Request: fold
Amino acid sequence: MGMDSFDAQNQSVEVYGCLQKGRQPKVENNSLTCDESSMIRISSDQPPHTALKLVPYPEPGMWYLGLQVRCVIPDSRLKIPCWGDFRFSNLMTSINIHIQPCGYRPQGEICGPYGVCVRTHKGVYMFTSCRCSSGYRGWTCDDSISAEPAWKLISDTLLLTLSNLFFLPAVVLALYYRLYTESLIYGATMFFSTFYHTCDQEMNHKHLPMSLEKACHALYVSKEVLQFCDFFCAIMSFWVTIISMAKLPERLVNFLHMLGVLLVSILVQYNRNGIQVFAVPIPLGILILVITLIVRSYKRRKVLKANRTCAIWLTLGILCAVTAV
Reply:
């Protein structure tokens, strides 16, 4: 809000405003009354004769803006009767209403160097907020009280990305035994996990090349594609491994692979951070493995026992799955 410069005739003229939601501002004794948090004020003796009112995350509904012109004492700001030409005249003001996502900075620097503006949908409503990184907090990621040191950020990024190289032996072994579906899932898990954590850690620090930064913003920040692919491929790695250990007929394996795709995609889309993402497909896969062993034992009329090597690796796999949950 702003007003033009004019001759106040040795008196302080003030435009006093009040912005409130759901009801009109109160007027008592011909004076507009307002809380400090909802007040807007412009004075002729306090340049630049403009005022900015920031309303973070405004609620939907009817908003009211009340304005009043009054003369005040410069020192105490107490209201006094106007004299001269201001006794009966009106004062023109300009009001600009601007809706901007996340913050008040220019479009390219809304959330500062340690934040990214993201959109969130809740039912029929869509709102924006700054997603802060490196321990920064606040509406626009300005609070550095809990900021993390640079060496910790670098070590976290390296651990999260380079740890995915442990999938390489699984990819090679799956190719060696001609388990092409399993090899594809392991390779996809390695790729999406590395890509996802790279964007998650480095997106806000401007360390990435411009093309990769744009890809991260499109696939990670705006659409959350990378997060879905990371969780989906990780759970599918457990599923295809357990199905492969059961050594089922090829037609049944294809059916169970498609069942896993449908089941895991639904669970990941429903709540990718919930325990049911792990608690449903992994026990189901182990149940299929146990049922297969029972059926084979029944057909051969003897109890089949897993060899020592298989038992050790199966136990380690179950322990890793339980630890992940």
The radius of gyration is 32 Å.
